[in-house]
Amino acid sequence: MKSKFVSNIFAIFFGAALVSYFFLPLLAMGRFAFQVTPVINLTWDNLFEGWKFDSITRALLNPKVLETATLTGGLTLLTIFITLLALLPIATFVEVARPGWKPWLTAVTILPWIIPPVALVVGVAATFRPFAPWFLSNPLSLSFFYAIWMLPFSYRAIAGQLSMIGAKTLFEASQSLGASTLSFFFKVLLPNIRNSLTVATLLIVAAVTGEFTFAALLLKQTFPVYLIDLQSEDVRSGYALALLVIVATAVLLSFVTSSLRKRGGQFNAIGV
Amino acid sequence: MSDISLIGVTKNFGNETALNDFSLSVPQGQLVSLLGPSGCGKTTALRLIAGFLEPTKGEILVGGFDVTQIPAAKRGFGMVFQSYSLFPHLTAEENIQFGLKLKRVGRSSVVKRTQELLELTAMTEHRKKYPHQLSGGQQQRIALARALATEPKLLLLDEPLSALDAAVRDQLRTEIRNLQKISGVTTIFVTHDQQEALSISDQVAVMSNGRIEQLGTPEEIYTKPQSAFVAEFVGTNNRISAQKKTGTLWSVLNHLVIGPKAGKTGTAYLRPEELSLVKGDTFTVTSKTYQGSFTRVQVASSTETLQIDLNSNQSGKFAIGAKVDVKLNRNDPLIVTEERNSK
Are B238 and B272 in contact (CB under 8 A)? Predict the structure, then answer.
């Protein structure tokens, strides 16, 4: 009885927090963006009156939006590519052949959490500007920062599943059956860590789509940076677009996690 | 199929010596167990044979060929692991076919061989299931079938039964032995369970500190242990003080037995079933544990406590508190003298 009481209290508290921190602000954002009524006149009584979606159409037709969204999309893909290309072989090698290195690798991948983006940007900029100015002048160079910045999440997702599936014994089993290292990687390892790769990819998508600090510091006009500009130029379409991005990200995340759960398996280890 | 020899193999990990000048020869078609406590080097020996480790010194010959430098993937040895380690994304059937497909064996022979192995392991009805849908025993059967699929020169079993519960373990042990005999594959079986080693093997190598303490048939290991370590590690043994009479004659519990020439005092090792009881006055019965067909009786004197196994229908004659004497049923027990650690 007592535990039920406690769990009820918890549910009410959680629900209230969810409503006040999540749904109410989103609702306010939606009303601001789509209801053609002066803000001061927005009350509960006219909740359903005067909704018009011209602000979002305006935003989507804005060529700058398309341009910056394309850049952010490209950055996302490149970040995923760099992460998988660099991280996957290293994490696999350490798990299979050098388990003793794991604590070190874990420590290194936590560093981006500790180093603030400002320090990272300033440090890298100071290092590269003298002899590779082309690197920082290309907006796609941001993807390297993003790959490093996402390491704490992407590494944990991948390393968690590698040790969960017992990659080391699977490697030995495949070797004893005559598999080369490459066939182990493609025929055994990849199919079995699909879930964590999906999770890592998704985290990168969600993070890069909303990343502001690095881009602003390096003066690159990515989608989130332009969103801020838009909000000062055309405030309603700026908020309409921001709302669309929030909803789209949430839908994508819940869709992928639910499909992962349906596929079965244990996801607690990789934090889904 | 082939015979395998390890010649003077040493393996160091940093300053630790896991395997020390280890030599072992397994004739073709035999099953040899490496038996020992954890840390004795048995798993290291197996991993060296598999090719997952490289020896610091020495060589490994299979069918007369030196395989020491050949990578694991090219050795063509089947291996079964304690943790089953089936490929989680493949069905039972696909797991068995994994090695065959890598070898680019023709489609029809893949199907035929898979069917054969599924039947041999009685797993045909589970062939479409994924590893997580199978019990531990079923997973290990598939792992065994997978290892045998490519008709390996050598089968390596790394504590394959340790993760299973008792009933499954006993059954699978028998099945492994049968499969091994049918396929005639030379097999090395690593275990820390002496009963498992005694019941499954042609020969048992008892290991300690990176060396073989004794190599022999299960009967030899059990009835003629050659060192205190083997006597104490395999089965239950009573340690009884022994005194030298003359030549090779020793006195144990007032019985004359044959022992080593050297030494004046020592310890005789006698199993509970190698002792029996008569009415007397030296010992007192202190406890009795019914075990079904036999009863383990514990007797104690002022200096010694002994375990004796009696046929259950005889043990009724000796009540707790009864005065008894202990008789020896054999006259050539292992006697380890205090001066030297061998017979």
Answer: yes
Interface A:B, Cβ pairs < 8 A: 64
Reference B13, options B38, B34, B39, B51; nearest CA is B39
The whole-angstrom separation of Cα A237 and Cα A61 is: 11
Q: In chain A, which residues have their Cβ closer than 8 Å to the Cβ of B86? A: 173
The ranges of chain A annotated as CATH 1.10.3720.10 are 55-262
Amino acid residing at B202: D
Mutation target vs B (from A168, A169, A176, A196; most B CBs, 10 A cutoff):
A176
Which chain A residue shows the shortest CA-CA distance from B152? A177
Query: pLDDT tens-digit profile of B274-297?
Result: 999 998 888 999 999 998 889 999
ipTM: 0.82
Cα A146 to Cα A87: distance, rounded to the nearest angstrom: 13
Whether B214 has a pLDDT exceeding 90, the answer reads yes
CB B192 within 8 A of CB B38: yes
CATH (one of 3.40.50.2000, 1.10.287.130, 1.10.3720.10, 1.10.10.10) for A55-262:
1.10.3720.10
**Alpha-carbon gap, residue B93 to A260, rounded angstroms:** 25
Of A178, A187, A264, the CB nearest to B103: A178
Give chain A's mean pLDDT: 86
List of long-range contacts for B249-253, beta carbons under 8 Å, 24+ apart: B250/B335, B252/B328, B252/B333, B252/B335, B253/B282, B253/B326, B253/B328
Q: Give chain A positions within 8 Å (CB) of B76.
A: 178
How many other C-beta atoms lie within 10 A of the C-beta of residue A168? 18
pTM above 0.90, yes or no: no
